[in-house]
Amino acid sequence: MSNYKKNGSSAYLAGIVLVAVIGGLLFGYDTAVISGAEKGLQAFFQGATDFTYTAGLHGFTTSSALIGCIIGALISGFLASRLGRKKSLFVAGILFLLSALGSYYPEFLFFEKGVACRSLLVAFNGYRILGGIGVGLASALCPMYIAEVSPASKRGTLVSWNQFAIIFGQLVVYFVNFLIIRSHAGDPEVVAWTNAVGWRVMFVSEAVPATLFALLILLVPETPRYLAMHGQAPKAFDVLARINGEQRANDILLEIKASLQQDSHKKHEHLFAYGFMVVFIGCMLSVFQQIIGINAVLYFAPRIFESMGVSNNMLFTVIMGVINISFTLVAVFTVEKLGRKPLLITGSLGMALGALGVALSNVVSLPALVPVISIMLYSACFMFSWGPICWVYISELFPNTIRSQATAWAVAFQWIFNFIVSSTFVPMYTRSPFFAYALYGVICLIAAVFVWKLVPETKGKTLEEMTALWRSRK
């Protein structure tokens, strides 16, 4: 027997996972592209003559993609069940592409180019919401796809790469936006160019990775779990054999079939078929990932550093970005050795220490370095724990027959609470910085207790073993 048939191909597995994590990169790219474009976008629509582009409208425009994220997450379960994981990811890629092109040229067919008006603003937000739907789909489906093709011993590591891709995508778009502005740095009309054209170029730059993703996703296989649930066992075996080798593929396929037989051959069941707790735990992991407050730090880092008296706030923001990437890699390389629960609990306690350090700095006179180090500790601890590990859990916690719909609800809760935290931080921080960070610190401690008491360890378990675990607890 050839080595390929005996052990499978690590290169094949790496290749299909690499395609899937481009979806994660697009997730990060799409959510962060607005940061460089929003000033030019604001100036453009402030030139409208048929309405007044207020600060409130600008706030909605910069965050309108979040509406699409919630919609995309909610429909991801339906699409994943009906179309499959692969085809649904292709739909996400097309939505990313349409959003990039539409945000670049929202005047297409119906409006005069370069003339801002109320209807054009509606069209622009429509394109941003399309991109948000793509983000919502990718955020649910990329981890699901990776988990369903990965061997149990590598699943946590491979899903964690998706979180790395999200953070990397954000850094890539920051760099792309910088290069776009720098390309006209010597032009005395650079501000006018940015307001008229620059923001458009930033949005359309996403078309490159979006096109690449949509084309490459056509080349990867459907997941073996989906194939087996839809009566395509031979195709499922072929995919499993290429990844695991023929003998191991046969064993895994028998486990999948056995789990389906115990579920009366159902392709999908009602959401609470395995009891309330599995869905509750999955959704609460998503809620905690947001209410510990990380997006308040990531979105408003320059403002926070400035309030701490740091003179070069953008430099410290970049330093924090490098720290975030580095500590995401800590999770990638330790999740299969240390397990999911230890990383989540340790990260929660570290975040609590960092958040409470910032809170204390607002009531006691301390050197500026103390809150700066505290906020970086807080961010770093998130990056090796709740950042990637929450996605690992969401991708592997749910039984096969409810995974698509349960994942959809868990990710939808994540985007809903993302919006709540992002929209409440500034007024809460303005009213009392101490209260804002003390609250996040206390929530981090509650999150640690929640994981310790209720969340099962999934390290080394197959997806079918997780199905059996929840069946036994019904």
Top keywords for this entry?
mainly alpha; 474 residues; globular
Order of H and E elements: HHHHHHHHHHHHHHHHHHHHHH
Q: Which structural class best describes the helix and strand composition?
A: mainly alpha
Beta fraction of the residues? under 5%
Indicate the low-confidence ranges by residue numbers.
none
- In quaternary terms, these chains amount to single chain
Total helical elements: 22
What is the distance, rounded to the nearest whole angstrom, between the alpha carbons of the first and last residues?
43 Å
In which range does the helix fraction lie? over 70%
Query: What's the alpha carbon Rg, rounded to whole Å?
Result: 23 Å
Can you give a write-up of this model?
The structure is a single chain. This protein has 474 residues and is mainly alpha-helical. It contains 22 helices and no strands. The protein has helices spanning 3-7, 10-45, 55-63, 65-82, 85-104, 118-149, 155-182, 190-204, 207-216, 224-229, 233-244, 246-262, 276-291, 294-299, 301-307, 313-338, 340-361, 369-383, 386-396, 403-431, 433-454, 463-472. 50% of the residues are buried.
Give me the secondary-structure topology.
Elements: H1 3-7, H2 10-45, H3 55-63, H4 65-82, H5 85-104, H6 118-149, H7 155-182, H8 190-204, H9 207-216, H10 224-229, H11 233-244, H12 246-262, H13 276-291, H14 294-299, H15 301-307, H16 313-338, H17 340-361, H18 369-383, H19 386-396, H20 403-431, H21 433-454, H22 463-472
Quick recap of the structure?
This protein has 474 residues and is mostly helical.
